[in-house]
């Protein structure tokens, strides 16, 4: 009969070695991530200027009115926040999460105006708020 104590220590040593190898692999990827480099290459020069604080606050204010009136895009994301969206207690992170679709929408509109081109925003899943209603 095998010694259970010896089996335990053998298994623990094996797990410890596997964790060490996984950690080394992880840390090497953090410093030299091929996937990240490829993504950066693909999007280099394709990403617009981010909104400044005043512009974001304007979008958040607009979002409060739009979402209360169920105006797309994103008004259904109001469910992501448990409080009232206009009580003044939302953190910036909560606002970005709740109004994320609207921020993207505004970015597309800005880019479209700057370049005088039409852009289309497509989701993998159906979102009622972004479907044109006739």
Identify the notable features of this structure and list them briefly.
134 residues, mainly alpha, elongated
Shape: elongated
Domain count: the total is 2
Which parts are unreliable, with pLDDT below 50 for 5 consecutive residues or more? none
**SS elements, strand count:** 0
**Beta content:** under 5%
First CA to last CA: what distance?
Answer: 77 Å
Q: What are the secondary-structure elements, in order, as H or E? A: HHHHH
Rg computed from alpha carbons, rounded to a whole number of angstroms: 24 Å
Helix content: 55-70%
**Largest pleated sheet:** none
Write the layout of secondary structure elements.
Elements: H1 4-31, H2 34-43, H3 53-68, H4 92-98, H5 100-115
In words, what does this structure look like?
This protein is mostly helical and 134 residues long. It has two domains: 4-43; 53-130, no CATH class. The chain is built from five helices and no strands. The protein has helices at 4-31, 34-43, 53-68, 92-98, 100-115. The N and C termini lie far apart (77 Å).
Give a summary of the structure in a few sentences.
The protein contains five helices and no strands.
